[in-house]
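Aim 2 progress update. The chain analyzed this quarter is reproduced below.
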Amino acid sequence: MENSDPFEIHNELLSDLITEYLDSAKKEERERNFTKWKLAFRNINDSPYHRACPILWDLYYLEDKKHIGIGKYDKLRSLLTEIGPAGDRINKAEKRIKAVTKDHGESKLDYPVIIEFKSRTKDPFYGDKVTMLAERLTTSDIEWCHVKESESTTRNLDLRLTNYSESTNEERISTLVISEARFEDSGLYYVSSKAGERLSNQLSLKVKGEIPDVFLRESTTCVSLGGTLELEGHVISTPPAKKISFWKLVDGKKGVIDISLEKYTGSTTDIKRTPVLRINKLNFRDEGSYWLRVENAVGRGESKHHEAKFNEDDTTRITRYFRLIHLGGEALKYILERKAKPSLRKYLEENTEEISFLCSRSQMDQLLKGVENLKEMDISVTYTLLRNMPNLDRPSKGWGSTPEDDNILPADDIERIRLHYEYIAQGDIPSLSPTSFTERWTELSKAIQRLNTNVLNPKIEDIKDLKLDKIAIGESLKALESNRKREFDLQFERKNIPIVEIQGLESVKYLKRAELTGNIQSPANISRIVWKKQNIEIDISEKKYSESHCNIGSTEAKLVIQRINIEDIGEYHLLVENESGRARSNILALKIKEKKPKCEILGKAHRTFILGETITLQGKVKSYPQSNVLKWRKEGITKSKKLNLDGEKYKGSNKDHQKPTLVINNIGIKDCGIYILHVENLKGEADSNEIKIDIEGGKLIK
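Predicted structure tokens:
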């Protein structure tokens, strides 16, 4: 295949002339042709250097001096006149160059400047980068000109615009770059002087592109609720697609589908692959119009809408089942009205504090309205209140568990209704086969009958025999969707209720420091943190609780109790509130470690007093459990004497279990001796240190 690049044809010609005519393998012919060339070259350059240099260097000289160039070979032809058929080779190369440089009926060689495409194609896609080169410039003072396809007028390109850039290097080559080709960039390009004289050939640029053609077809059949629907797209896009997305229209509202959700596992909008929308576990919320949208650099294309509708038998079964569950909610409310004594309003008023920990903020708002007839109360709220009723027996397997078939206590049936409600209210709306519908209908209707002693029997039969038209089904499904949304919001709110836990030593030494730490997790902003003892709020600003803190912005709260004593024994918990509800931590029952008592008499171990003086001995006792025996003794040489605090000779206290005192009036010789404090509690007994008392000039009395 012949080369179509003028520069390569030019180089090929020079190479052939050297190897075939000027550097022949025949020595005699080579020497003869070399001599003829040098003799002819004297007319151009007769320097000593060029008389002996290789012919290739002479050719470089001719190109540098512009004597020869691409398609310009008159000087070369005259130099080779005497060398065989070299002229024929030049003529052939010249014709090839003219053939490949024709553009719009003219040759690039007709002008002093040649412009060519450097980018891969002269017909780029919309948004592609286009580069043009202008070669053989004699000056850098030029203008790039553009003639639009739709116009005959010429405009000089404003190279200050962000879409264009131009540069000229030292070799006098100017480069024009169109960063993102647009349709208006199509047309003819050339270079002119500042005076408007055209200096180059013209280049034709044709920008290609259209908005995408998009098609969507159903590749799998929608089986029914709970099944899978797969839609496959087909895209024709020039230029290539930049973005692909699936859209859905429901009740006049359209929105893009987030295929990263588990619901759409198996879907893809990768521009390098066939777009696929896979909808798993079909439910009523999946009904609607679907379409595929594709964007490229030109614009946006969309497929026709695909309508997704489900089997009418499915909708009828779901509607009847939903209405029966709603009837089950009435059964729960019937039980609640009977259990809430003396009335529901009174019950709510008396138990507001406790109920607030069972319900979310929105549930509490609903309850605090005092809706005595319960018509507006959700099943989830009713169930929560019932399971915390003290006068309602627990289910056979406990609250929150699935009862066995033979478990038929009222609380078992309450659990059954709760399970049916959660089955349809949480997650995807399920598909009900005829068999599944019959099984669920039987179990739920029997539970309702047992709870209400046949009060609601007629309503069960009404639902079963009700003729459902499209309007009735639509209303029920709309109510179901509203109910599901309310339950979804409730679940979201419950997730935002704080989680609180407290830790600390449950058993602390008497008069030592106790520390409780609360760990708080709250997705929503916290509004209140309170420490409580025996359900009474603790004022942590008191000196006893110094170092404690309940900072709203912190994930930790601390309760520090200084010198713990009997009054500090009790149950502690932490209460945290945010916008979604209230949470109470676990309860920590604080105790004081029980040990044998310790006691001492303060002051010097040996004391001397004046006859007739009144003296006081101060004791100190640490005892938990509290001391039940407290005695003062005087030790003689041979015996020990218990002192009787009768108020005459000896005064003081054996009632103060922490700081007992002994007062000795009118001290005499008989009072000299050793004194000891004796303490007993349920864990043991203890004696204090000895204190020796003397009288000036006296002696110890036996």
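The chain is about 30% helix and 30% strand. Residues 6-100 form one domain. These observations will guide the mutagenesis experiments scheduled for the next reporting period.
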